[in-house]
Amino acid sequence: MPVLTDAFLHHYRELLSFLSLRTGSRDTAQDCAQDTWIKLSESGDRAQPENQRAYVFRVAANIATDWHRRLARERQANERYASGLTGQTEADTLDVAAARQTLRRLQAVLLAQPARSLEIFVLHRHEGLTYRAIAEHCRVSVSAVEKHMMRVLLACDAALQA
């Protein structure tokens, strides 16, 4: 297991508290923590910082900052849409075809997941349940919920990269 992944796991609870303060939401903090883990696992052994804890927290802080920026862009886009200033009235045929193809790939990936992983993913993303609520509903640990979510998210990410 890469050194940074070990550092991430060792400081996970502290990192979650840090991200909760940054984002204002425990659920968003969990999503940012997952993104942090993915980013660290992608770097493998390339990054070898002297202070691994500080590096992990810097990556997490950057992801939380990106989350805030994305949220601001979404709000801005919603405001433009609501005020009727959308600019484009019809989607380009190529864009529609590409979007449909992406949706088909994601649908295939989701349907290929184990039933429990898919159930947990749907409960979180569609029903909006927290990891803790899902754990109670499914009678599993929060850690198990995180692992199921990570499995589905990594599969979706792989499908989007293809």
From TrEMBL:
<dbReference type="GO" id="GO:0003677">
    <property type="term" value="F:DNA binding"/>
</dbReference>
<keyword id="KW-0805">Transcription regulation</keyword>
<dbReference type="InterPro" id="IPR014284">
    <property type="entry name" value="RNA_pol_sigma-70_dom"/>
</dbReference>
<dbReference type="InterPro" id="IPR036388">
    <property type="entry name" value="WH-like_DNA-bd_sf"/>
</dbReference>
<dbReference type="InterPro" id="IPR013249">
    <property type="entry name" value="RNA_pol_sigma70_r4_t2"/>
</dbReference>
<dbReference type="InterPro" id="IPR007627">
    <property type="entry name" value="RNA_pol_sigma70_r2"/>
</dbReference>
<feature type="domain" description="RNA polymerase sigma-70 region 2">
    <location>
        <begin position="8"/>
        <end position="73"/>
    </location>
</feature>
<dbReference type="GO" id="GO:0016987">
    <property type="term" value="F:sigma factor activity"/>
</dbReference>
<feature type="domain" description="RNA polymerase sigma factor 70 region 4 type 2">
    <location>
        <begin position="106"/>
        <end position="156"/>
    </location>
</feature>
<dbReference type="GO" id="GO:0006352">
    <property type="term" value="P:DNA-templated transcription initiation"/>
</dbReference>
<protein>
    <submittedName>
        <fullName>RNA polymerase subunit sigma-70</fullName>
    </submittedName>
</protein>
<dbReference type="InterPro" id="IPR013324">
    <property type="entry name" value="RNA_pol_sigma_r3/r4-like"/>
</dbReference>
<keyword id="KW-0804">Transcription</keyword>
<comment type="similarity">
    <text>Belongs to the sigma-70 factor family. ECF subfamily.</text>
</comment>
<dbReference type="Pfam" id="PF08281">
    <property type="entry name" value="Sigma70_r4_2"/>
</dbReference>
<dbReference type="Pfam" id="PF04542">
    <property type="entry name" value="Sigma70_r2"/>
</dbReference>
<dbReference type="InterPro" id="IPR013325">
    <property type="entry name" value="RNA_pol_sigma_r2"/>
</dbReference>
<dbReference type="InterPro" id="IPR039425">
    <property type="entry name" value="RNA_pol_sigma-70-like"/>
</dbReference>
<keyword id="KW-0731">Sigma factor</keyword>
